[in-house]
């Protein structure tokens, strides 16, 4: 965990005058009043035609049987779930921010929600029915493992926790681990569709309850955890001042951190068990309170900060649910999860915070890119030739593998036009899939190399620009509106979504001259919003039959034909001369901000132009095969490890390694559970996540 404190998290404020205490009390009272108003409105909303007057009669001891049933069986359980989730996530978020000393730490950015969700889905997929409390324990263990992994990987590489490199490192680690967990979860949802029916919708976070049993059983757990955190509030105040200061003042730092994180994860797991992973409440609620603490004396102390974050968490959750019902109506809002609204709100808030935070520049030099430089120039070129030969061999064997195994002679007969009808059919469908994997893998890898060079962050990838998420929104929108839409319609939707996302990200980042940290954080915020919109589209249109959209979002070459590969092929052909001409600009940009200016390279304009090329490549690849993660991260980094940091060699090696990775993943996906199939994007995530963990761990030890 970072050893320096961040200014947004400072602030044990002693010796307050009575007037200031009154200001604090008034602020907390105003928050409670707003909660009461939202709760009252919340009870009046729903799909049943029960009037406010009838509900009031139930409250006062009268009322009809229908009104009583609606209030007791539906609206009160939903309200109580909102209260519990808001308190749990708001409190968990504020504690995680204190321990990580990072205003962007939360159950989402630490992958706690993703880990808890994966654990619950895994048990359901294998037919294990668990009581509520046991299910909460499973979610707790999954969330705790995720938090420990992310905090361990994010520690040590970054400056102040409040901004710059430390913030980006934490969010990168959490986002990548969450992406890997989400890929595993999606794999289970696809493979065990019957056992996990309805869990995709639950995974977006919903307050819908059939009874108050869940709240009744987990309410005491949340209450005990909050009280326990209040008991160590003074230690948390001191902990926010830094490890060294806390140790001098007698606080046992590691023990306090462990206790606080365990309690925070327990709160998050309780919320996930009751309502699913409702996104970004744990980020937005405490961050809002910390911003208010600048103007409200005494609110910086955890004795006030914890209850204030809990109240704000309830306001965010109930406010999102009230807004959801106002916009969609009582009946439609039953199908749309509350977590979609909170994620959209949290994503907007993340973008706002990103624009306020100072830029730490990611990595300050090109040190992270200069790997493998001890080998000779001849050796590096031989490695590129070797990678090309290996790709040809992998493509050859990929044509032979699948639900129908072929021999080399079958392939030769097909090439010469002498194959039988079965062999011809198999290879006519398999060849476009192999080519799609190769072209999309190369495009994503090149785009990743561009993004990493321009942002000077070897842990960045194209998805962080929001382009992948935008393409997902566009394509899934077409799929859900017109289930029988052609490939070209889906492709056009994906391209339009990618361009829209890129315009938003670049437009928001332009004010800072495309500063690295700001650009990445804004991209992550846009990606989160895109993910929420995709979930809403799938769930609100056909929640129990979203297999087509899920498969596309998982990255698949299934059903591809040769004409459908034209967009990605054209993108590669157009991008190649541009990137070759800019190879020296890449080397300069990867150094620092000063060197390009000295050499006359227009920093902002060059970044924008090169990132636009990366966007086009990513959009074309996503339109061709769907969403495939980690290729743009793993392939460029592996390329630099093999051929060094010069982009004249990194770019072609990245393309070859990306093509290899996706081609192998596609072949395995067609073979491992044949005749069933696994989307290639899920397998690249399974391969890429451990590699990413190793990268973070390596940079942690060398930073």
Automatic annotation (TrEMBL):
<dbReference type="GO" id="GO:0033214">
    <property type="term" value="P:siderophore-iron import into cell"/>
</dbReference>
<keyword id="KW-0813">Transport</keyword>
<feature type="transmembrane region" description="Helical">
    <location>
        <begin position="382"/>
        <end position="402"/>
    </location>
</feature>
<dbReference type="InterPro" id="IPR037294">
    <property type="entry name" value="ABC_BtuC-like"/>
</dbReference>
<keyword id="KW-0812">Transmembrane</keyword>
<feature type="transmembrane region" description="Helical">
    <location>
        <begin position="434"/>
        <end position="451"/>
    </location>
</feature>
<feature type="transmembrane region" description="Helical">
    <location>
        <begin position="111"/>
        <end position="130"/>
    </location>
</feature>
<feature type="transmembrane region" description="Helical">
    <location>
        <begin position="519"/>
        <end position="541"/>
    </location>
</feature>
<feature type="transmembrane region" description="Helical">
    <location>
        <begin position="608"/>
        <end position="635"/>
    </location>
</feature>
<feature type="transmembrane region" description="Helical">
    <location>
        <begin position="680"/>
        <end position="697"/>
    </location>
</feature>
<comment type="similarity">
    <text>Belongs to the binding-protein-dependent transport system permease family. FecCD subfamily.</text>
</comment>
<keyword id="KW-1003">Cell membrane</keyword>
<dbReference type="GO" id="GO:0022857">
    <property type="term" value="F:transmembrane transporter activity"/>
</dbReference>
<keyword id="KW-1133">Transmembrane helix</keyword>
<feature type="transmembrane region" description="Helical">
    <location>
        <begin position="214"/>
        <end position="233"/>
    </location>
</feature>
<feature type="transmembrane region" description="Helical">
    <location>
        <begin position="463"/>
        <end position="482"/>
    </location>
</feature>
<dbReference type="InterPro" id="IPR000522">
    <property type="entry name" value="ABC_transptr_permease_BtuC"/>
</dbReference>
<feature type="transmembrane region" description="Helical">
    <location>
        <begin position="259"/>
        <end position="292"/>
    </location>
</feature>
<protein>
    <submittedName>
        <fullName>ABC transporter permease</fullName>
    </submittedName>
</protein>
<feature type="transmembrane region" description="Helical">
    <location>
        <begin position="488"/>
        <end position="512"/>
    </location>
</feature>
<feature type="transmembrane region" description="Helical">
    <location>
        <begin position="334"/>
        <end position="354"/>
    </location>
</feature>
<feature type="transmembrane region" description="Helical">
    <location>
        <begin position="170"/>
        <end position="193"/>
    </location>
</feature>
<feature type="transmembrane region" description="Helical">
    <location>
        <begin position="24"/>
        <end position="43"/>
    </location>
</feature>
<dbReference type="GO" id="GO:0005886">
    <property type="term" value="C:plasma membrane"/>
</dbReference>
<feature type="transmembrane region" description="Helical">
    <location>
        <begin position="647"/>
        <end position="668"/>
    </location>
</feature>
<dbReference type="Pfam" id="PF01032">
    <property type="entry name" value="FecCD"/>
</dbReference>
<keyword id="KW-0472">Membrane</keyword>
<feature type="transmembrane region" description="Helical">
    <location>
        <begin position="304"/>
        <end position="328"/>
    </location>
</feature>
<feature type="transmembrane region" description="Helical">
    <location>
        <begin position="561"/>
        <end position="582"/>
    </location>
</feature>
<feature type="transmembrane region" description="Helical">
    <location>
        <begin position="137"/>
        <end position="158"/>
    </location>
</feature>
<feature type="transmembrane region" description="Helical">
    <location>
        <begin position="79"/>
        <end position="99"/>
    </location>
</feature>
